[in-house]
Design brief:
The protein is mainly α. It is about 70% helix and about 0% strand. It folds into two domains: about 90 residues, Alpha Horseshoe (Leucine-rich Repeat Variant), CATH 1.25.10; about 130 residues, Alpha Horseshoe (Leucine-rich Repeat Variant), CATH 1.25.10. The chain starts with a helix and ends in an 8-residue tail after the last helix.
């Protein structure tokens, strides 16, 4: 396993670009650890090298993924997300604890959070929907990335009209969160839900708009018709 980890890291170093490394930091408030490799190139490296590990069992692949997470490099976290998602046919309910550990201990920026949760964690939730109960616990965490993760995990299921009552429950928990990245996260979740349940999401927004931070509200209504957006954004009823 150490051999493939070393190989990946060598390829990332060779593919690094000073300009990409410098400009990459501009998308984050936190200090990000970067090689400076374009996302498309990272995806290609992940795909090509997965051939060397796909014969391993899922837990062995997770061990490699965890080593990537431990490095702190964002590009390595993307490879961990890619490889863990590729094992989804073998997911077990107990894998939730593995992913929870990664979010709680290693996720340190929105890009790593969203890449892991939009795909890997979401795939597990769709197989074992009872795990949404644990997502609601994440929403109450002191760790802002776990709170964001609780929402962004449901983005893709929300687009397909799934889990609407749970989506509203998680939004309720996060409703007045002080962190803008959490506000954006649950606003994005509501926006995704509005693609299949526009009327119900709009009703939710109208009901809660005096409590919702404007950041979350704007995200939630972004894909709605202009007349609904205007009604939701009436200034005299919005708490700034």
């Amino acid at each position: 396993m150490n051999k493939i980890i070393t190989k990946i890291r060598q390829e990332l170093k060779r593919a690094s670009d000073p300009h990409t490394k410098t400009t990459g930091q501009n998308f984050f408030k936190e200090k990000i650890k970067l090689y400076g490799v374009k996302t498309a190139v990272v995806s290609k490296i992940a795909k090509e090298n997965y051939e060397e590990v796909k014969g391993l069992n899922k837990n062995q692949i997770f061990e490699i993924c965890e080593e990537f997470w431990k490095s702190g490099y964002m590009e390595e976290s993307f490879i961990a997300c890619d490889w863990s998602y590729r094992t989804r046919k073998d997911f077990k309910k107990s894998d939730f604890k593995v992913f929870e550990k990664w979010v709680e201990n290693y996720v340190a920026n929105w890009a790593s959070c969203d890449t892991l949760c939009n795909h890997t964690v979401a795939a597990l939730i769709e197989i074992y929907p009872e795990l949404i109960t644990d997502l609601k616990k994440w929403a109450k965490s002191k760790n802002l990335w776990m709170r964001r993760a609780a929402a962004v995990t449901l983005i893709i299921p929300a687009r397909h009209g799934k889990f609407l009552p749970d989506i509203f429950e998680i939004a309720n928990i996060l409703l007045q969160d002080k962190e803008d990245l959490v506000q954006k996260g649950y606003g994005w979740m509501l926006k995704a839900a509005s693609e299949s349940n526009q009327k119900k999401v709009f009703e939710y927004v109208i009901k809660n708009k005096t409590k919702m931070p404007r950041t979350a509200l704007r995200y939630a209504i972004e894909k709605m018709p202009e007349n609904l957006r205007k009604k939701a954004m009436e200034k005299e009823t919005i708490t700034k």
